[in-house]
Amino acid sequence: MNTLHNFAFNVYPYLCLAVFFMGSLARFDRDQYTWKSDSSQLLRKGQLRWGSNLFHGGILFLFFGHLFGQLTPHWLYELFVTAPQKQLLAVVAGGVAGLLCFIGLSLLLHRRLFDDRIRLTSHRTDIAILLILWVQLAIGLSTLPSSLHHVSEPTTMLRLAEYLQGIVLMQPNAALVAGIEWHFQAHMLLGMTIFLLFPFSRLVHVWSGFGTLAYLVRPYQMVRARRLNVPVNQGLPRRGS
Question: Which residues are annotated as a binding site?
Answer without folding.
Answer: 56, 66, 187, 205
